[in-house]
Write a structure and sequence with these properties.
Length: 270
């Protein structure tokens, strides 16, 4: 089965559910991007929390609507908090997202991400190099930048999704989202996203938010990617450069509604 649009994925309903439910997203994330991540969640209609102490992370994950684990600036204390939060989320059936930032090139975070992926995240979201490294078919990119395209990671992403029993989302010029059986590609967006610190990390948080309000994590991941892409396209039209783009993108995340999301540039196949 294939579709050229979103008729097989009710993205409008997902957008409405996010607006009305205000899911609480527990973010253990990159210290560089915490403010943008929190603001992106608020703009979309979710509620952020940044609880990363090991003494609290597991307890808070158990009451959150969804959890984001992003290894961007990980160290020993936050690594333990991430393990505790992921275990608590998994034990309670709470959706959680793993963002394996710069995995492959750095052994400490690579080993941690390998450990976390065995806890079966609901969604793994990263760039092509990160996903390929996590799947064991690549050695990582150049720091946080990918040296491969999303389609280069398609086979690795599908295999990783089957292994975790979840969804793998690969960011690129055209994003790829798969559960190992169905694959969606999300177009649109703007190159200015790549010049905005933390846009990808915020996307991971929005994936978690959407997965908190829908039953199908593929729908949640696609909705988040489509939402970010639509907002980026709108922001790019209004922006003079990366500085004004970042502010306009937050405004556009707020403005994108269900009707807009239903018309997003999405292709699915199964």
């Amino acid at each position: 089965m294939s579709s050229s649009g979103t008729d097989a994925l009710d993205l409008a309903a997902a957008r409405e559910a996010l607006r009305t439910s205000t899911p609480l997203v527990h973010c253990l994330t990159n210290t560089v991007v915490q403010a943008l991540t929190a603001n992106a969640l608020l703009a979309a209609g979710a509620a952020p929390a940044m609880v990363d102490a090991p003494q609290e992370a597991g307890e808070f994950a158990a009451v959150a609507s969804a959890v984001l684990v992003n290894v961007g600036t990980v160290h020993e204390r936050t690594a333990e908090a991430m393990r505790l939060a992921a275990r608590a989320a998994g034990g309670d059936g709470t959706p959680w997202v793993l963002d394996p930032v710069a995995v492959g090139g750095l052994p400490y975070r690579t080993a941690l991400a390998a450990e976390l992926v065995e806890l079966r995240p609901t969604v793994v979201r990263g760039n092509a190099s990160e996903v390929m490294a996590l799947a064991g078919t690549g050695s990582g990119g150049r720091g946080v930048d990918s040296t491969a395209g999303a389609d280069d990671a398609a086979t690795a992403a599908a295999a990783l999704a089957v292994r975790t029993g979840g969804v793998v989302a690969v960011s690129g010029e055209v994003d790829l989202v798969t559960d190992g059986r169905r694959t969606a590609r999300v177009g649109g967006g703007s190159a200015l996203l790549t010049r905005t610190t933390g846009a990808g990390c915020a996307l991971g948080a929005l994936v978690a938010a959407y997965c908190a309000v829908v039953d199908d994590p593929l729908v949640g991941a696609v909705a988040a990617h489509a939402h970010v892409s639509l907002a980026a396209s709108r922001a790019a039209d209004a922006a003079a450069g990366p500085g004004t783009f970042a502010a306009a993108w937050l405004d556009a995340l707020d403005a994108v509604d269900g009707d807009a999301l239903a018309g997003a540039e999405v292709r699915i196949a199964a």
